[in-house]
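so the lab meeting is tmrw and i was supposed to have these ready like two days ago... anyway. pasting both below. for each one the top line is the aa sequence and the line under it is the structure tokens. i havent really looked at them closely yet so no promises
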Amino acid sequence: MVWREYGNRAQAHGEEWKFAFKMLLRIAMSLYEFDEEWKAEALYQLEKPRVTYENPEADAEMKEGEIQVRDLPDGAEFVWKEKAYRKISLQRTRVLCQRLDDRHRYLFVGKAVVKPNLP
């Protein structure tokens, strides 16, 4: 929608994207019934749209043997969604990692919950 109208002129997460997000969220809110908790969050998003959504309760949802990828030392291997990765470096809030089977590099959110790949 934004791409068709603005092409490369629209900045990522700029005003054009925020306007389109607000418009689509308003349509969804008019078509569907939301729980009060979800409705309150949606209304907040209409006022101040954020680039990403962070779950403040994510820390409490970790199971035994799991860790956040940002807490691993550089070079540590871990498993996420049944694929093995190696942590390369922390880049502000994201973590640069390399998948071991094909050597592709990926950025993980620092709070991503993973299982350490222990020898």
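ok protien two:
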Amino acid sequence: MDLVFKRLKFADAEAISHFASQNLPVSYSLGFFLQFVYNRDGLCLYVTTKQDPDTVLGTIAGQIGPGGRAQVHVLAVAPTARRNGLGTILMKEFTNTIEDEGINAIEIQTRCQDAGAIAFYQRLGFEIGDIARGAYGALGDGLRMCKALSLVS
């Protein structure tokens, strides 16, 4: 399977918003994804295949924050593409895309109850941080995690 990574454009934002909301327990508005199109510090990538360029397999969205840190706000993979390393590939592609920005750490937040996501991020080298009480409303608290990046000069 030949993967194709694309940077989010206005024309694709509605489809990516729908994809993320269908594949995560939290819904994301079109406006949420448009910030990654118009904010110069925002980055949203999504992946399809050469064989089926209209079917989204996964997406990752985040932004470059202050102090050399990037935040990943969304990482979603289609159920049919899970357990094949696509989440890891998306995170690496995101990291590679922002590496010239002087980023020294990537932060994420996931639901405290999502043991699978927590284990996934730990396998990628993220360390458990603090709890964000009520971050997901009725879905519970958030767990902040961080991964230090090694900068090569």
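from a quick look at the 2nd one: The chain has one domain: 3-148. The domain at 3-148 is CATH 3.40.630.30 (Aminopeptidase). will dig more after coffe
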